[in-house]
What we know:
By secondary structure, this protein is mostly helical. It has seven helices and no strands. The chain has one domain.
Amino acid sequence: MPANKVFRDRLSSFDLKVDLAFDRLRGRRSYDLLFYGASAVGDHGILWVLVSVVRGVRPEHRRRAKRTIIATGIESVLVNLLFKSLFRRHRPEHNGPRPLPLRIPRTSSFPSGHTTAAFCAAALLAENDPLWPAYYVMASVVAASRIYVRIHHPSDVLAGIAVGTALGHIGRRISPLERDS
Length: 181
């Protein structure tokens, strides 16, 4: 059996197992509100712009806020125009009703843009910030939401975590913070 087929089969098996685990949560009103809401505020990096603006109110955090907003804009262009065009993966099939409204992107499923934006922003905001766990919790909820609402395969989300974290750390090296607390 060719290695490529073995890899695809294992990836499909992984995606299916994780999706089935999420089935235990789906259909419960509290989880629907949490994950559909997180998916909505994750659209176009809205959550990360809002968090950056709130953090940037204090003068000592303005550079961090500007850096995050600019970097997530660059991340969006890289992921949505470059990375996704290389893969052309179909999104998971979902034939049932959705409990809440949801925008369904037309781009490739791989990698998850919501997740790359979330982890890029979390990596940038977290640098030398005592609130760093909150950024990663929010990023994780946004990432999980994409699996929950069946817009992404779990492997799309894992790739998004890796790409977003890497882009965030590259952003930290390109634009280091100076005495920003």
